[in-house]
Amino acid sequence: MDQLRQLRYFVAVAEELHFGRAAERLGIAQPPLSQRIRRLEADLGARLFDRGSRRVALTEAGQILLAESKDLLARWERTKSLVGKAHRGEMDAVRIGVPPELAGRLLAALLTAFEARDVRVDLQELTTAEQVRLLADRQLDAGLLQHPVDAVGLELGPAVQTPLGVVLPRDSPLAARSA
Asked: Taking the mean position of all CA atoms in its chain, how far away is CA 151?
């Protein structure tokens, strides 16, 4: 958890661009804050701030860490909230996006698997583009997306193979063909 504290301290300095104001915001003295930031820089092997006599600015490495830190800290807070809800028996339904053309047997298998684990599911019929947007905005917990998909910033899970077939009238000339 020390790394999370270091990230919180880093974000405060990065947002304030002033060690004194960041220390005040965090309710700590400035020297320990400066030490924590130096330790974080040593751990990462990168300078995160350009420190001048009158100003503090983020380095390129600092800008990257700021963006990633905010995401990590938000995910940690969401994780703590979900764990607390589960512990208190207040778990909401898992919000899952599914494409309109999802095969019935696949949908049944999905629902059966969640039911076996006593997890409530809130299915939302959405296109892949809608799911990507809602996943990025954290309005969905998971989604079944059709490939190819631009899932930058999202974690892709296993791919599901859905066999397809062709149905033709019996008297069609194409019905006699095997391929």
From this structure: 11
In angstroms, the CA 171 to CA 2 distance is 72
Question: Mutual orientation of helices 19-26 and 2-16 as an angle, nearest 10°?
Answer: 130
Q: Which amino acid does the sequence have at 132?
A: V
Instruction: Give the tens place of pLDDT for each residue, 8-66.
Output: 999 999 999 999 999 999 999 999 999 999 999 999 999 999 998 889 999 999 999 99
Which amino acid is it at 142?
A: A
Give yes or no for a contact between 97 and 129, defined as CB atoms under 8 angstroms apart.
Answer: no
pLDDT number for residue 91: 65
Helix axes 60-87, 2-16, angle to 10 degrees: 130
* DSSP-assigned letters across all residues of the chain: -HHHHHHHHHHHHHHHT-HHHHHHHHTS-HHHHHHHHHHHHHHHTS--EEE-SS-EEE-HHHHHHHHHHHHHHHHHHHHHHHHHHHHTT-PPPEEEEE-TT--HHHHHHHHHHHHHTT--EEEEE--HHHHHHHHHTTS-SEE--PSS---TTS---------------TT-GGGG---
The token pair at 82 is: 């979900």
Place of tokens 């860490």: 65
pTM: 0.53
